[in-house]
Each structure stands twice: as C-alpha cells, then as structure tokens.
Protein: Chorismate synthase
Amino acid sequence: MSSNSFGKLLTVTTFGESHGPAIGCVVDGCPPGLAIAPEDFRDDLDRRATGRSRHTSQRREADEIEILSGVYEGQTTGTPIALLIRNTDQRSKDYADIAERFRPGHADYSYWHKYGLRDPRGGGRSSARETTMRVAAGVIAKRWLAQKYGIAVRGWLAALGPLTPAAFDWAAIEDNPFFWPDAAMVQELESFMDRLRKSGDSIGARVNVLASNVPPGWGEPIYGKLDGELAAALMSINAVKGVEIGDGFAAVTQRGSEHRDEMTPQGFLSNHAGGILGGISSGQDVLASIVLKPTSSILIPGRSVNVRNEPVEVVTKGRHDPCVGIRATPIAEAMVALVLMDQALRHRAQCGDVGAVEPRIPAKP
Amino acid sequence: MSSNSFGKLLTVTTFGESHGPAIGCVVDGCPPGLAIAPEDFRDDLDRRATGRSRHTSQRREADEIEILSGVYEGQTTGTPIALLIRNTDQRSKDYADIAERFRPGHADYSYWHKYGLRDPRGGGRSSARETTMRVAAGVIAKRWLAQKYGIAVRGWLAALGPLTPAAFDWAAIEDNPFFWPDAAMVQELESFMDRLRKSGDSIGARVNVLASNVPPGWGEPIYGKLDGELAAALMSINAVKGVEIGDGFAAVTQRGSEHRDEMTPQGFLSNHAGGILGGISSGQDVLASIVLKPTSSILIPGRSVNVRNEPVEVVTKGRHDPCVGIRATPIAEAMVALVLMDQALRHRAQCGDVGAVEPRIPAKP
Amino acid sequence: MSSNSFGKLLTVTTFGESHGPAIGCVVDGCPPGLAIAPEDFRDDLDRRATGRSRHTSQRREADEIEILSGVYEGQTTGTPIALLIRNTDQRSKDYADIAERFRPGHADYSYWHKYGLRDPRGGGRSSARETTMRVAAGVIAKRWLAQKYGIAVRGWLAALGPLTPAAFDWAAIEDNPFFWPDAAMVQELESFMDRLRKSGDSIGARVNVLASNVPPGWGEPIYGKLDGELAAALMSINAVKGVEIGDGFAAVTQRGSEHRDEMTPQGFLSNHAGGILGGISSGQDVLASIVLKPTSSILIPGRSVNVRNEPVEVVTKGRHDPCVGIRATPIAEAMVALVLMDQALRHRAQCGDVGAVEPRIPAKP
Amino acid sequence: MSSNSFGKLLTVTTFGESHGPAIGCVVDGCPPGLAIAPEDFRDDLDRRATGRSRHTSQRREADEIEILSGVYEGQTTGTPIALLIRNTDQRSKDYADIAERFRPGHADYSYWHKYGLRDPRGGGRSSARETTMRVAAGVIAKRWLAQKYGIAVRGWLAALGPLTPAAFDWAAIEDNPFFWPDAAMVQELESFMDRLRKSGDSIGARVNVLASNVPPGWGEPIYGKLDGELAAALMSINAVKGVEIGDGFAAVTQRGSEHRDEMTPQGFLSNHAGGILGGISSGQDVLASIVLKPTSSILIPGRSVNVRNEPVEVVTKGRHDPCVGIRATPIAEAMVALVLMDQALRHRAQCGDVGAVEPRIPAKP
Structure:
C-alpha cells in the first residue's frame, strides 16, 4: 500500500511538491450519491490558506480546485475522486542558496539521507503545502458525516505559546485569524505575534479538535482503534510532536476514581476519556489535541552542515509562518473527519446495523 | 487488511481473549536466517508478566511460549512465525457478576455497542492480556535490530503519578519492579503504591522509550512517517491516552530558536526532535513518551448502567494492577521495536543502500 | 500487509509447515453473531482430507480443529477467530534424502533461491497441507453467505486428464471420491486412476466452482474486481496454472454476437460471462474454472541438481496424490466463498443498501 | 486500501472516466534516481493508442502526458509520481441514447446495481480508457527492471479468433498493427478484420507476455505469489476472461513425467511451469497468457432491458475496436512489469541479497 495513502476504506492518496506544477489527491471509497461541487471546497481551503493575515506566510496561492473524476452531474459516483490544484506562486529562487545546506529542524537532512537526492524547492514533498489536499479531502468527509450522522468536526487553537484561552465561545472561533475561542484575547494575540515576527523567531501551539454526535461503536480493535488511527493521522501533520485523546497527559497524575467516566441512565457524568473506550467510540464527543512545534524556518541564524559535512550558517528567509499551529486547525479537523468517515465505513462493513444496540445513554447528561 | 494486524512489511497479527483457551500471534515478513528459540522470549515475557511483585495484578500465567511455525533448526525461514501461549489461570467467576453491567472507563460499553454482544470474561479481547503477544513479537524485532544494526530499544517508567525520577541510571532500571531509573527513589515508590493499593484506587503513569543507533533515513513520508507509525503503535496499547515524540507538548511554549536542533560536523547539538525530522529518522536517538491512564478497575464503587440502561453500582474486584503503566514498559519497547523493524524493511525495499549517503554526522556530539 | 494473508475486510492469515507442530489460521473481520462450532468444520475438512480413498495420498491426519478465539457461547464476537490443527502424521524421514536435492517441478529450488535456506520436510510451507486452513476458513464464509444471502458455493471435478463428464447431476458429486458429476463414469475413473498409480505417474485436472444466488453489485473496480480477486485466490492454490471466468479461453474464437449475454425482463438469455461484468457481479451464477497441473511427486526418476549444482536423480516416494486436482475441489470452493464474503462486506461498506436497485432481472430465465 | 490501487510496494492508483476532464495515476514507491521524462512514455502510449490503424477504435486521443510530481531535474526523487492526461476527443452524444438502457455484455447493468447511479458517457470508469494509465505506469516499471536487472517484458498477439501464428519472430511483432509474430500472415489478418468489421461483429483474442532475465526468488508465498499477483493484475484488464501461466490449461491432460521441468547443471530442460514454482520465480522466462473476450460493443442489434426493466433493443454505434485484444498487448506487458517490479522490491525488503544463492543454473540450456 502506498505510503502516501491514508485510510482503509476511505483512502486518500496525495501527491505533489511545494514548487512542482501541481498538488492533488485521489479520494477512493466515497459512497455514491454525495452532492459535491468545486465551490464546496472554498471555505476550508480559505481557512487553511496562507496570506490571510499578516500572521501567516505571505505566499498567495489561489488554490483553485478542479474535480477531475468521480463526480457526475454533481454527485459522487463511487469511483475515485481526483482533485487538482495548480501551484501558481512558487518563488524557487528563495531556496536556491540552501540546495546544498541542511536547515536545522527541517526534513532536509533526513530526506537526503533517505533518498540520496532531494527537491530542495520550498521543502519539496516535505512542505506543508501537501496539507492543502488533506483539507480538500476532509471537506468530502465532513459533508458525508454531517449529512448522514449529523456529526460536526470543529477545531480551535487551544494555546499559542504561553497564551491559553480564558473563555470558550464557539462563535468566536471563526471570527479571528487565530481560530481562537476567546474574543477578548484576540488583541493580545495580535500583539504577541507582532513582537514575535519582529524578533525573527517562531512559537509552538496547541490545536484541539472536537467531533460531536459520533455514534458509539466506531473503531476497530486492536490495531485499527479509533484513537490509534487518530494518533497516526494527526502525528502525520507537519510539525506535530504529540497527540492526546481526552485528558491526555494530564492522566499521569490522575486517580482511577477521578478519571473513569461514570455513567447514569441520563448519560455520562464526565468525559475524561475523550469519547473513546477500548479504541471504540462511546457516543460521547471525541476530543483530540495536538502540539505543533515552532517552525525552524526563522530569521535567526543557526549552525548547520552542508552535503559535504562542512559547517555552515543557515538563515531561512522565504515566506514562513511564525506559528504554523494557527493554520493547522482546519488540517487537524480534516484528519479527524477522514478517520471518522473511514471508521464509519469499516463499522458498517463488519457490523451493519448491529451497532445500534438499544438502549443507549445520551452523549451528554 | 486485518484490524488485528500491525505493520506493513513486518506484519504482526494477534488473536485471543483474556479467558479463552489461548492467545497467539503470527509474525510475517521476518527475514530468513535469524536465530530464535522459545527461551529467547523468556526475559521480556517475565518483565511484562503479572504477579512479579505485590504492585501488579496477582494473576499468575506461566506464559510458556510455543513456536508453531516459521522456524527450522533454530532459524527463521522467511515463512510466518506463529507463537502460542495457553491461558492457564483464568478465574472467570470473578467476572460473572458484571456480564450485564458496564464497568465505567472500560471497553464494556463500547464493545457492546459495536458488536451487539461481547465476551465479558476478563475483558475478553479488550484485556491487556493481548499485549503479551506484542511483547513476544517484539522480541523478534529487538533481536533483528540489535544484530543487524546494533540498535537498542529500552524503556523506563518516567512518572508514577506525581513522582518523577530525580536521577537517571540505565543500570537501575532492571533492578526494581518499577523500571525506575533512580534507585534512590524505589523505597518511596513502594510506599506510594502500598498506600494506593490500600485506598482501593489506581494511578496514571508515563513511560519513555529510547531507541539508540537508529540510522538516518527510516520512515516513509507522508502517511507512513516514522513518528506517525509510532503514534499509532503506542496509542493502540491499552490505557494509553497520549503520545509524544521528543519534546512533545513542551514544544507548545518553545521558540523555534530553542527547539530546532542545530548541527555541526561533530554532530547534533541537541535532540528536541526526538530523532525524527519530516517523519524520517535523523540518526539521533529516537525518543517516544506515552501516558497510561489510571485503570478503571478499582475497588471504589462507581455509578454505571446495565444492558437495560438501568442504574447500577460497580465495584471491580478481580486481580488488577493499581498502576498499569508499570508493566507497560516492555510493551512500549516492543511496539517501538516492531515499528523500527518494519520501517527498516520498507527503507531497504525502496532505497536499498542509497540511504547510506556519506558523510553522516555522528548521532551525538 | 502480510503475504500470508488474504482478503481486505474478511482477512485470513494462515501459518504452518507440513511437518511442523501445527497449522492454523486467523480469520479477522467476520461479523458478530454467526453461530459456529468445531463440528461445523468436519464435513469440508473430510472432503479435503487425504486417505479417504486409494486415489489420494495415504497420509492420515485427524485434522481435529480447535477454535482458540473469537467465539463465545457458540457465536462469533467480531474479534479474530483463530483455528488450530496439530500435525500428527508427519513422517519426515520420507524426505531426508532430498534435503539437499531439488525435486523437479517443485518449489524446492525457488524457495532455496528466495530464502537461502528451507524446511525440506514434506515441502515445508509450500506443501498443500496449508490448504487445510483455507478449507477451514472457507467454512465460515460459506455459512455466512448461505445464512445471509442464500448463496451456495459448490465445486466439482470437470476433467480428470482426458476424461470429462458426459452428464451433470449435482446429487452425484458427493457420492464418489472424485467429486464427479456423472455417476455412470465413476467406474471408468477408478480404472484410470488404478492404471495411473501403477505407472508411477500423475495427471492434471480441471475443477469448476459455481456460486449461485450472488446478488448483483459485488466487486470493486478497478483493482478489486470480483474476477480479479477470484483469479488471485484460485491461482494461489498449489499446482494451479490457469483460471477462467465463464467461458474463459473459449472466448478466443467467439464472436461478440455470440458471447454477450442478452437480457430480457425475464432474465439473462445466457451466461458466457460467468456472472461478472466489468468486475462486478451481475446477479447471474458466478462460474470459475481452474487447471491443476499433474503433481511432480512421482515414482518415475527425473533429472535434477543438488544445492551444489551437481546432477542428481530424483524419485519422489513419500505419500502423494497421483491427481492433486481431486482434492482441490473443496479448496477451490473455499477460496471462492472467501472472496465473495470479502466482497459482500466491501460492498456493504461503500454502498450500504444502494446496491439493491430495483427492478432487477431474475438470475435465470 | 484503495480499490483503484494496485501493488504493495510499487503502488499504482488510477483515476478518471472515459469522458471526464482527465485520466491520471499516482505511482508510489519507485526508488529514487531513475531517469524519466515525458517523452519516455511516448512509445508505449502510441502502441496502445486508438486510431493507429483501421482495425482499432477511431477515437483519436493525443495522450499528452504531464508529470505532476515525483521527478526533479529528470530523476525520480522517491516521492509519488503523478501522471496526467487530459481527455480531448470525447463525443458524449454518441452515448446519450444509452444512458437509460444497459448494453448487453457491458458493465452498465452491474455498475448501476452496485452504485445506484452511473456515468454513462463512454462507459465512464469501466471504459478501457483507464488502461492508458496502466501503460504509463508500466513504462516506469519496464525502465527500472531493464536498467537494474536487464529484464525485458514483451508481449504479442497469440491468437486472433481462429487464427494463430504459424511462425515466431520477435522482430516482426512491432512491424504490424496486430503485434503479430508471423509477418507472412499479416495480410490474412487484415482481410479477416476487414470482413469482421463489415459484418458489424467482433472477435476474441489471446495475448502472451514473456518476461526474460527474471532472477530466481521473486514472489511471496502464500497469498502474494508471483503467479497469483499476475493473475489478479491480468484479470483486472477489461475484457479478460482467463489467465494462464506456462502451459496453463494444457496441463489438464498432461502427465507429471511430461510437465515437470527437469534440471541439469546446464539448465532447465523445458519450461512448462512458465518460470514459476511454488509461486516464486525459478530463473526461467516467465510466461503468462490471457484471453480477451469479443467486445460487446457491436453494430448487430441485441436484446436488453432499461432501468425500468422494460425490453429494449441495443445497437452500439460509437467508435469501438472489433478486437479489443489487439491493443491489449502493451497493457498486458505493463501489468506484468508492474507486478515484477513490486515483487522485486518486496524480495529486497525481506531477503536483501540472500536470494542470490549460488550456484544457480542457467535460465536456458
């Protein structure tokens, strides 16, 4: 199976380099009869796009998506859906001077040791440009989950460096360029980012994704667990260094009497588990959280080596995000949606309607 | 592909329930010519075994392993290696009273909603008994990695609830029942666990695994990244709620100038990345860290429902670990070793010896 | 994915060597709630067994099957079903003299060149002993297909060397040791086989399998087509050198006006296609046909080489079938049933009940 | 795994409909460093192209291929290679009258029952147009196999309806539009096809493919056998109804003393096995043979039904091949090459250089 493919029954294969002619993906396994059109991809591609505010990379890509196959008269047909986006704003000269030197903290060195050669333009295949197609594929999954199960998959920025939201309001999230759930803090974030950009440095972040209305029974033990697949999907996003489900690492110091989510006929009394028990959804909201490292593409000079193992100094100019975590929000949503849709199909295959065992306790008290 | 299988080229398929007649696994894809005998499994199975100290479950399994296939005259032949362990110490009556009620924080409720029926004896398939076979399969991977590349995969308990090691000594780890790297603290851990057991409660933990001597170039971008596969493998372990690579969630508040690992001809100057860049090993030590939630099998009564959605009270007697994280150490090592061996084979397939691009900087300064 | 695994959603992994301690398989993905017991395997294992008549190998294996997992209180639970059979009648000394020489027409030479070593006892992994587990797994698939869809998968010997049935009677097939559909010819077959055995030679055969009541819509274009998967499954049976669907190679000389199966509201007017169009079942009976080569294990001396490439003479004594095609009938049935069940689950995953588009023309006029 | 993907380590995913905007494929797993350029695809695409002679479909596609990714400065980089061809000569009106009626012998009826809807233009996804991308992907495999192992994969038309070659000359094959190895018969084939076209009917065919210089040891028992994978690959080609390896169905009436290929230090004495023993290459030439049914797209009216199950008469006008087998030759070559390259990588992963056990007998006496 392709290492550039993801998912067992809903399989997404992506291709393309940052500065190649195009990026694209093939989404295979989508049920027939789902209405989808090029404009349906607009919103999420815009949410991920660079150049939306001064706080993200200034590369401006139109990201016009073309549906090459799998859709007939506005509906999916069950055959593979190919999506294509032409790259239009490559400035490869920005990278010419680092073709032979390895940027610290980047994939340059490891790609070179793996393949013996590499496409240095804009990071080539290792660029976050690839995640555009994840978002595109995720749009299909989100639509299907919403229409068939009423599932909503929504993310937000849960930490920007040392800053964390003091309040939570779903409505606020889409009203600021940070996907921040606390409107009162947006000014503070703006200032933080302005100072950071001026310093030439970058900062880490945390992104949360919550999927609501997930029915109980999704997930395939033992090695296709819902949390296992979420972990793989989220860790595969560029710059992610950790994944948590529910309480995550906070559970290190918790007691069992505190962590276990008690149940009553009226519903669960808490959700420390993040909606997953034994690798299978419990009917509660599924919560995943990730950390995005601070990008290594910064203006502050760093020590490194070149292909001849000679010492060099590296300064990454180009157009980069001082906090890659911000734009990771729609990407993380897409990955969660793709995992959920894949698991939905897998569950239907093995268990049909058996999963709908009644009675079921409500997702929330 | 089987949801009870793991790995692309080194594929491990496990089977068996906690109180069924046996557990076992099939390891497929191992190169021919590796020397292996039943006694080679002894050490790691003992490290994972219950009943070694008063701090773990008192279920006593002999865990005598039988090699059913794939080995001829003491050497692997390239055909699938089947390993079998008979269950001998099942006390199913311990579980009879919870056949119709769901233990909070357990897989009972989610399995029942997935499959419409379940084997309630000892947790059935969702029991940590399954991890015995991971450890067994991991023995094969550890041997191959050690012999062919000199790789060592070693784990330790990095936190027991609120306690963390004040010192680190490889030699100490195997000298106490906690896999604790700080000999001076063992007495403190003993007391902590005794108090905990008496309280009828349980506690969370953190386990670290470090793989040294991993060559650069292992890992398959984009959806077969080394860190993505580690995340899936580790998150699939029972009770794991989070996975970190390198600095993990600490990177939320780090700056790029701090996080990026600078390079010199004499080696990397730090290892925040945990040995993985762009999903590919960098030649540094690979570090993964996981959190194990406090087990929900505790003596303190909890509210729950039964299959008719009636309120019930649940007390889990049986023989349980007050800290499942302790015995998770060899399990986590096994998963890391299996992922590494799989990636080694995948790298060899696509890149042959190309990966051995020279010069290479040393793993450590 | 394991090379010893078969199927995407119903995945069968087999293990074991001819003269090792045991053979077994793991069947993963079976829906929960299917009633199955060890005695349900008896009939088909007996049909495949050696030693039933003087016309097959005289190796006598009890083939007592043990269900190790996946079944609780007589029903499948949705977890992997492991099946085990101990080998009891190995006579490895029969093979001692050929450990260093390659039997012509056998896998000895190719295994040795692949792995650099091999288990020579009874052919090791390349022995048809492995097919016992296919038959066992096939029993599960046959039961599920029959109960859920009323599908019957039945095979027969369609040619024994130069002999072909002059008549066809379903009832006759199970009444003779040849799976021959023409009772009047059984005496002729007995004589033919007696002469053959006396000559020390072997003969080829053709086996047909027909699956009736298959609904339209099963099969996944383009690379998971029903006929493509049948071809892979059947070609993987030992000694098979060709696979046909429907008219097969007879279509070389057919015209389109003859081959195309015309349709009327009352049904198809013919079935040249063997029930598959564009890789998807059409609702007609699915017909597959295979050729089994004459076994190379014969008493007539043959020229060969040894591991040092020196010329040797080989005579295969042991206990062998003069016509391996005879016992292949239940094996071929099993493979067809496993492919169909896998495709049924795949269809259900992607298309749910959409496949049941009405009106549908009857399978037969 | 995607049902529109093929291969385990060299994975080809195709997409596109006959009359959609484009067809394409993603080839993942190709080793880095292979030189490849758009013009390298020209020859094989031309060999498969329609409109080359009056004996094939008159649809004229420029088939200009674009490399979208995976190649940098003329060399593969190890990342996925995406290939795209725009459809330019769709005449969808040709098919308007059959949108609601099912052509007998076509995938119309089965697609409709699978998906509940279909793209009727030119057969949509079930069109042989898809095979263009197989040929394109096959070019990469052929180049790699040739450069690394000196392997040549070559096909020819072995039967055109009742006609079979009376002589065999490699040089003749590429000198006539039939891929016919007997130059003296080409005039006879021309006449046969002219008469056939005039009659409005179509005819079946047989295509052979031979791969020479394949090393011993390729193929993964039990369910990834070289012959099993060839069978799946070849049966997945449109219109194929049967696959043979080596002597194929002729083995039904052969004796073991005749079929087994005896060996001497100077080489094998025959090649009835078609170069494969126990699913693993033996070092002899690999020979596969397929039957292509006569296309059902003919001018002779046929009985059928429409989507309301009413009786209709169908005449397929459009631009069709009276013998689809002719153009199948490069397609079959491509599939054999792709299977071999995939197996080469798989062998390298598990066995490294072990397969090169010496001494090895020559492929030919």
User: Anything to note?
Assistant: Residues 10 and 342 of chain C are 5 Å apart (CA to CA). The longest helix of chain C spans residues 324-351.
